[in-house]
Amino acid sequence: MASSCVTSSGSPQIQNPGSHEVLLPHHQQVMSMDQRKRKRMQSNRESARRSRLRKQMHLEDLMNCICLLRKEKSQVLTSINLFKQHYLEMEAENSVLRAQLIELTKTLQSLRHICITSTTPRPPPPPPGGGWCCMFWT
């Protein structure tokens, strides 16, 4: 059974047996709920403000990352263009060198053919009677 006692303000308080809670009159409970509600609303506002700040910081971090990535992309594209230009120059030089190789190979083959046909001693025709061979043995 609930017991009652009087507070210093003169309003009665009711206490449940087995409980250390003091039950306040209805108007005090309403005021207490209003205070909790205001406190909760203030806490929610602060939480929302912190959330907006975190979101803003995250957005700023992302924007900084975008700037850095754009700079890096620009540098990479510049490097690619330089390498592409260098590649095209090397490709042109290789084409010239291949053409020179083909020409020089043809010239070398022609010179070898001339050397083989002009420097190879042809044996003189044998003399009549075959006496010519004996000359080397005597």
From TrEMBL:
<dbReference type="GO" id="GO:0003700">
    <property type="term" value="F:DNA-binding transcription factor activity"/>
</dbReference>
<dbReference type="GO" id="GO:0005634">
    <property type="term" value="C:nucleus"/>
</dbReference>
<keyword id="KW-0539">Nucleus</keyword>
<dbReference type="Pfam" id="PF00170">
    <property type="entry name" value="bZIP_1"/>
</dbReference>
<dbReference type="GO" id="GO:0000976">
    <property type="term" value="F:transcription cis-regulatory region binding"/>
</dbReference>
<dbReference type="InterPro" id="IPR045314">
    <property type="entry name" value="bZIP_plant_GBF1"/>
</dbReference>
<keyword id="KW-0238">DNA-binding</keyword>
<keyword id="KW-0804">Transcription</keyword>
<dbReference type="InterPro" id="IPR004827">
    <property type="entry name" value="bZIP"/>
</dbReference>
<feature type="region of interest" description="Disordered">
    <location>
        <begin position="31"/>
        <end position="54"/>
    </location>
</feature>
<dbReference type="GO" id="GO:0045893">
    <property type="term" value="P:positive regulation of DNA-templated transcription"/>
</dbReference>
<protein>
    <submittedName>
        <fullName>BZIP transcription factor 44</fullName>
    </submittedName>
</protein>
<dbReference type="GO" id="GO:0046982">
    <property type="term" value="F:protein heterodimerization activity"/>
</dbReference>
<keyword id="KW-0805">Transcription regulation</keyword>
<feature type="domain" description="BZIP">
    <location>
        <begin position="34"/>
        <end position="97"/>
    </location>
</feature>
<dbReference type="InterPro" id="IPR046347">
    <property type="entry name" value="bZIP_sf"/>
</dbReference>
